[in-house]
Amino acid sequence: MLRDSGHLQERDAEMAREGRYSRHDPPLPLYTVADADRAIGRFRTVDFGIDTPLTERAGFGLTRAGHVLGSASIRLRIDDASVLFSGDLGRVGHPLLRPRAAPPAARTIVIESTYGDRDHPDPGAHPHAALADAIRRTIARGGSVLIPAFAIDRTELVLHALSALWRAGEIPAVPVYVDSPMALAALDVYRETVMRAEFLPDVEPTMFDLPMLHTARSAEESMALNAPRTPCIIISSSGMASGGRVVHHLPHLLPDRRNTVALTGYQARGTRGRALLDGEREVKVMGRYVPVRAEIVNDEEFSVHADAGELLGWLRELPEPPETVYVVHGEPGASRALAARIREELDWCVVVPSVGERVLVG
């Protein structure tokens, strides 16, 4: 994943140089494949639930966070001080993965707040009904469905949901293309036998069953999807349409009213995904504005980020109250809303820190 990300950084910088649409001169990648390789060479595998010493005074431990495969909360200790960083916390009922573990005690908690101001909708008796409706409408009018999806976990969840919808007869059997080298590499990892312990017992090793599933591994195969010959579903990263191959599909598919773009996760402010979600009629792609005539739908059921209630539930599982909770990693309103609920419901000292603010722990 890190190596592929470095490749994308290099490619995007080169395209920006050639297209002259960057504000930087020259545009440079944040990091390169060589940088990634140097970092990967220093990776070490650490199991959940084991205290790992760093020095005589410091160490850390990992706890399953249940957000994506391998995600963890980390508790860092230095002498008598201890800080627990939640990282991205998963939902209590992830469709594929084992649930998150109870957090260990720590004097200071740093918790994310991506969905700190809302609770996820209840899918009811028909999960992903909005997506199924959109697929049926789009195929009936001769269009294709483009699904921007994060390469890690979200692509797997989308395929899992499409399989269930097809088996239930809620969507037609049409070609489904996975168009993301990183997502394809992640699929291989998810299917490895050694990973089975991380999945729920009832999840089949194949995870999904689609009769017309295809992979677009080469650049040529990806380019062919800019003008599909028949109605189809294209799953391509990135999930916020801010990079990756999906950016190359948007200029070709957005102007056609027969097509649909189905958003499947959180869309941060300033991303193309957020612009589409907010109803913008033109979006800027690689330096040029593209008209948005395609149908835009949003399936909120795919999010595996813990919502406000689940974040509070994680805090309630702490063996003892912390001295201070810092609420981070969220839009300002979401962070403030979560902090208010922690203050009101748990009566703990809670702060939404400013960017660059320094505090003492321990």
TrEMBL record:
UniProt GO molecular function: hydrolase activity; RNA endonuclease activity
Region (Disordered): 1-24
Parts of the chain that traverse the membrane: none
InterPro entries linked: Beta_Casp (IPR022712), MBL (IPR050698), RibonucZ/Hydroxyglut_hydro (IPR036866), RMMBL (IPR011108)
Hydrolase among keywords: yes
Enzyme Commission (EC) number: 3.1.-.-
Keyword rRNA-binding tagged: no
Annotated keywords: Hydrolase
Chain ranges of the Beta-Casp domain: 155-276
Gene3D superfamilies the UniProt entry points to: 3.40.50.10890, Ribonuclease Z/Hydroxyacylglutathione hydrolase-like
Range of residues in the leader sequence: none
Pfam family of the protein (one): RMMBL
Top-rank EC class of the record's enzyme: hydrolase
PANTHER family assigned: CLEAVAGE AND POLYADENYLATION SPECIFICITY FACTOR FAMILY MEMBER (PTHR11203), INTEGRATOR COMPLEX SUBUNIT 11 (PTHR11203:SF37)
Protein name in UniProt: Ribonuclease
